[in-house]
Amino acid sequence: MSTEGDTAAPTGVDRSCDLSQPLEKLHPDERMKAESNYLRGTIADSLLDPLTGAVTQTDAKLMKFHGIYQQDDRDLREERRRQKLEPDYQFMIRVRLAGGVCTPAQWLKLAGLALRHGNATLRLTTRQTFQFHGVLKGSLKPTLAGLHEALLDTIAACGDDTRGVMSSVNPHLSALHREVHELARRTSNEVIPVQRAYHEIWLDGEKVVSSEPEEPMYGPTYLPRKFKFGFAIPPLNDIDVYTQDVGFVAMAEGETLSGFDLTVGGGMGRTDRAPHTYPRLGDLIGYFPKDRLSEVALAIVTIQRDFGNRADRSRARFKYTLDDKGLPWFRRELEARLGFALEPARPFVFTTHADDYGWTRGSDGAWHYTLFVENGRIADTERLRLMTALQEIARVHQGEFRLTPNQNLIIANVPAQARAAIDRLLEGHGLHGPNRASALRLNSMACVGFPTCGLAMAESERYLPVLIDKVEAIAQRHGLAGQAIVTRMTGCPNGCARPYVAELAFTGRAPGKYNMYLGGGAHGQRLNRMYLENIGEERILAEIDRLFARYAAERVEGERFGDFVIRAGIVRSVESGVDFNRADPA
Ligand code: SRM
Ligand code: SF4
C-alpha cells in the first residue's frame, strides 16, 4: 500500500540508533548489513548477470529485506546435480499486506502476475499475505513493478525488520474491524524501513541525494532478527496473539475501540536438539489508550534494536531479549522511553483461533463468505479450478478480499443485493465443496515445506492433506467425525504454521519423519508438548488411533482434545517456553 501521508513520527520516542558494540564481535550478518549501503549491496548487478539464475549469496540475504527469497526447486535438485547443472534457481516473493485486505482489482493484478511470472499459483500465508513462487530472476522486476501499479509493495516482508502486521478478521464486528485494520496498516507503514534502495532497484527510481539519515530509526544494521506485530479482536484469537513478538488486543465497548492490551515476547521458532531455542507465549503486561499506539509500537522496536542479541542469531529474537533481561527490566525501559506508565491489563476472553466458514453477516448488514483454502494454495487443479473461479468472482465483487491467519479467504463486504450473484459463482465453480470438508480438515494448516522451502526437512503442504484423509477414517471409526481438532504441520521446527499452539501437531525431522505434539489450547492460549520424536506415518496413525479411542471413551462433555490429553495425563502442560524442549510423554 502507499506509505505516504500516514507516517508521522510520534513524539516521545527516541529514533536515533546507537549501536555501541564493535561489528567484529557481532554475527557476520551485522557487518553484511552495515556494509550493504542500506540494503543495496550488488543486487542491481546480480540481476543483470546472465550466466546464472541466482544472485550472489550476500545479495540473496539482502533481498529478503526487499521481500524476496532465493530458492531452488528441491524436487529437481538431485537430478540437476547429476546432470552437472546449477540448481533450478527461482524466487519467492512475499507481498506486504497489513491485516490481509485487498481489493478485487488488486486480486486480479496479483493473479495475473502469478500466471505470467510465477508458477501460476498464489499462496495465502499464515500471516495473511500472498506469496508468489517460482519467479525467475528476469521476472523479478516486472513482478515488483506490477505490484507497484496495484499500490502494493514487498518492503520488509522478510529480513531483519518489522514484518507483515497481522490483524484479526472477525467479520461480525464491522466498524471495529475497519478501525483495527486501519491501525494495523498505519503501524506497518510506520515501522518498516524507509528503504530508498527498494525504489531505486526495483522501480528504477531516481537516487535521492539528501543530507537526512537514510534510515532514521533502523540505522545501518536494522534489527537483530525478524520482528512481528499482530492485532487481535476478542473473542477471536485467529492471529494467535501470544505467538507474536508484540500483540495488541483490542479493548472495545461494543464496537468503540478504547485501546489495547499489550502482549510481548511471543515466538514459535526453535531448533531440534538446541535447548536454548524454544517457542514462547507472549506475556500480557498492560493496557494503553489507542492514541498512544504509534509511540508504543516504535518504542518496542527501538528497544529490540538496541538490546537484541546481535552476536548469536539463534538467540536474537525479542523473546530471548525478554528472557535474558527480564520482564521488569523491559517494562521499565518501555515506560522510560514512552514517558508514561502502562495501565493494568483489562479483562478479555478468547474463544477460538479457528475460522468460521460460510456466509456471515456483519453488524453493518454486509455479507462475508469465508472459504476454506486447503493450506492456502490457490491454483487450478483437476479437482478444483480455484485460481480461475476467484478471478471470476473478483471481476464482479464490489467489496474486498480478506486473508485469514489460517490461510483461508473471506469474500468480504458483499452488499445484500449482490450476494445471490456471488453465491451462483461459488456454486458454479464448486467452491462450496471445500467448506463441506470434515471438521478435522477445516481446522488443519500446513506450512509450505517442499519443494520450495530451503529449510524443509520433511513434506508439509503436500503431505498434510494425505495424512488427514487417513486421520479422518480413524476419527470416523471412533465416532469423532464432527470433532474439530486444531491440527498443524510444518516441514521443520521453525514453526511457520504456528504448530506449537495446536492441539495436535507435527514438525518435520527428516523425509517421512516427524515430531508429534499434543495439548495446545483451543484458542492459542497454551503451548503443546512434544509427545513422540522422529516417527513415521505408521506410528503416527497407530498413536492417533489409540489417543482417539481414549478421547472418545473418556472425554467429558464439550472437552477439547487438547485439554483432554492434559487432563488424562497423556502429556503434561508446559509451564513456560523454557521447559518446552523436554520431551514428555507421560
Ligand atoms: Fe516462516 C523461514 C514460510 C510464517 C517462523 N518461513 C521461512 C522461509 C522463508 C524459509 C527460509 O528462511 O528460507 C519459508 C519460505 C517457504 C516458502 O517456500 O514459501 C517460510 N513462514 C513461511 C510462510 C509462507 C508459511 C505458510 O505456509 O504460510 C509464512 C509466511 C508469513 C508471512 O506472510 O510473513 C511463515 N514463519 C511464519 C511464522 C508464523 C507467524 O509469524 O505467525 C513463524 C513462527 C512465528 C515466529 O516467527 O516465531 C515463522 N520462518 C520462521 C522461522 C523461525 C524463526 C525463529 O525465530 O527461529 C524461519 C527461519 C528463520 O527465520 O531463520 C522461517
Ligand atoms: Fe519451511 Fe520450516 Fe517454515 Fe515449513 S516451517 S515453511 S519447512 S521454514
How do the strands of the widest beta sheet line up side by side? 1-2-5-4-13
Span from first to last CA? 50 Å
Mean pLDDT: 93
Relative strand content = 15-25%
User: Unreliable stretches, pLDDT < 50, 5 or more residues?
Assistant: 1-18
Bin the helical content: 25-40%
Q: Please report the number of helical segments.
A: 18
Associated small molecules: siroheme, iron/sulfur cluster
Radius of gyration: 23 Å
The count of strands amounts to 20
Major pleated sheet: 5 strands, antiparallel
User: How would you classify the helix and strand content by structural class?
Assistant: alpha+beta
Q: What would you call the shape?
A: globular
* Assembly state (oligomeric): single chain
Folded structure, characterized:
The protein is of the alpha+beta class. It is built from 18 helices and 20 strands. A five-stranded antiparallel beta sheet has the order 1-2-5-4-13. Strands 3-14-15-12-11 form a five-stranded antiparallel beta sheet. The protein has a five-stranded mixed beta sheet with strand order 6-7-8-9-10. Helix 16 (464-477) runs parallel beside helix 17 (537-554). The longest helix has 18 residues, at 174-191. The model is unreliable at 1-18 (pLDDT under 50). Residues 69, 71, 92, 94, 125-127, 129, 131, 163-164, 226, 228, 243, 267-269, 317, 376, 447-448, 452-455, 494-498 line the site of siroheme. Iron/sulfur cluster is lined by residues 447-449, 453, 455-456, 460, 490-492, 494-496.
